[in-house]
Amino acid sequence: MTMYLTEQLAQEIVNRTMAILPYNINVMDGEGRIIGSGDRQRISTKHEVASEVLRRKETVEIGKLDTEQWNGVKEGINLPIVFQGEILGVVGITGAPDETRGYGELVKMTTEMIIEQAFLQKQLQLDERIKEEFVHQLLNGSDLEDNLFYEKAKSLQIDLAVPRVVIIVKGGALELEHNRNLELMINELLEKEDLAVSTFTGEMVIVKKVYEKDGQWEKDRTVSTIRIWLQSLHKIDSTLKLAVGGYYSSFRQMYRSYEEAKDTLLVGQKLAPEQPFFMFDDFSIYVLMNKLASEIDNNPFSELVNKLRAEDELGELQRTLQVYIKENGKASNTANELFIHRNSLQYRLEKIKEITGKDPRNYKQLFELYLSLVIDMFATREK
Fold it and tell me: At what angle do helices 97-140 and 7-18 cross, to 10 degrees?
């Protein structure tokens, strides 16, 4: 990666060196033009001695008598800025050479150190960008057999054989600074083999390393880790939600885990908004129902609850059905929950059968009624 002296970097060098030295500092680029200086009026002007330093590739001192030979040049010492064996520019200290000479190597070393730090930072940012692109490619499941994909994994030292699942973290706050703090906290919690990226919608996606035993995902171990994470993350955002996709042994299926995590987050927030995190394994059937609700027109299951709603203005029968399902079809528990006699419950169940054509006391037909309620809930909340 090529390194260039920018005006911003040059001025940073000037500001940092002048903070410890009582002399003006000038920084010139590879063409001898002043791009950083304690004397702002000299910015963008040509520095003839700097051009000489670049030509000779060595330090040039200018005494009081020498200034007459150069146009607009003051007393001082001018040193080449060397980075990775190449001269990027020149740094100059304004002042009598006898006074400034002792600071020359100090300024040169400080300048080159600042440039080295800037280069490493730039390299780190480039690596992070490449890593983000790699993770997005992994999540999209695109071109995973491309040689370039494997080369990226090797250069980033990402072991594709490590078992992982996808986790989506969604904060409830909209403030940029708040989300930035959340992102910093998540990065502190990640293990060595974990990967993480931000999405354009503001969520954090974590490709989390998991552990296997006898070829099976140790799910409880992952859940324990997530609960520990939530203790820290909820200190920043108490409304934060987290969803975990399914586990697949091959990285080529990671996109499925990602899609499942997204769908699980959507469904979990509707069904159990009080919960802090959701597992796809616990919500897989509801994910399927949600897809049915959004993809199938005139869904036959939706018709069941529509019929019931049309004949149940007060919602009494719908409430009875919901409690009956919650109590797993146990009449006594349902009657107690509704504060009604068991005979009244039987009357209501018979009424539901008359309206919908489905008998709640029949397990298969009760399941169809349950599907109808859930799909209707998804369809209603999408509108």
Answer: 130
Compute the distance between CA of residue 152 and CA of residue 80 in angstroms, rounded to an integer.
37
Query: In 10 A of CB 240, how many CB atoms?
Result: 20
Nearest partner of 270 among 143, 141, 379, judged by Cα: 379
Judge contact between 205 and 197, C-beta under 8 A: yes
Alpha carbons 55 and 61: distance in angstroms, whole number: 14
**Residue 95: other Cβ atoms inside 10 A:** 18
Residues 57-82: pLDDT tens digits? Answer: 999 999 988 877 887 788 999 999 99
Report how far apart, in Å, the C-alpha atoms of 143 and of each of 135, 146, 206, 214 are: 12, 5, 20, 30
Q: Which residues belong to CATH 3.30.70.270 in the chain?
A: 162-293
Domain 296-382 listed as CATH 1.10.10.10: no
Q: Say if CB 323 and CB 372 are below 8 A apart.
A: no
Q: Is 372 exposed, middle or buried (0-12, 13-18, 19+ CB in 10 A)?
A: buried
Q: Which CATH superfamily includes the segment(s) 162-293?
A: Reverse transcriptase/Diguanylate cyclase domain (3.30.70.270)
User: What residues does CATH 1.10.10.2840 cover in the chain?
Assistant: 296-382
pLDDT tens across 128-185, in order?
A: 888 999 999 999 998 898 888 999 899 889 999 999 999 999 987 655 566 778 888 9
**What is the rounded distance in angstroms from the CA atom of residue 350 to the CA atom of residue 357?**
10
Contacts of 3 (CB under 8 A, 6+ apart): 83, 84, 88, 115, 118, 119, 122
Instruction: Please name the CATH architecture into which domain 7-120 falls.
Output: 2-Layer Sandwich (3.30)
Residue 124 has pLDDT above 50, yes or no: yes
| Cα gap 79→49, rounded to integer Å | 10
Q: Distance between CA 120 and CA 128 in Å, rounded?
A: 12
Rounded distance between C-alpha atoms, residue 316 and residue 312, angstroms: 7
Which residue in 107, 101, 113, 94 sits closest to 37, CA to CA?
94
| Residue 354 Cα distances to 111, 256, 312, 324, 330, angstroms | 87, 42, 12, 17, 20
Cβ–Cβ contacts within 10 Å for residue 64, how many?
10
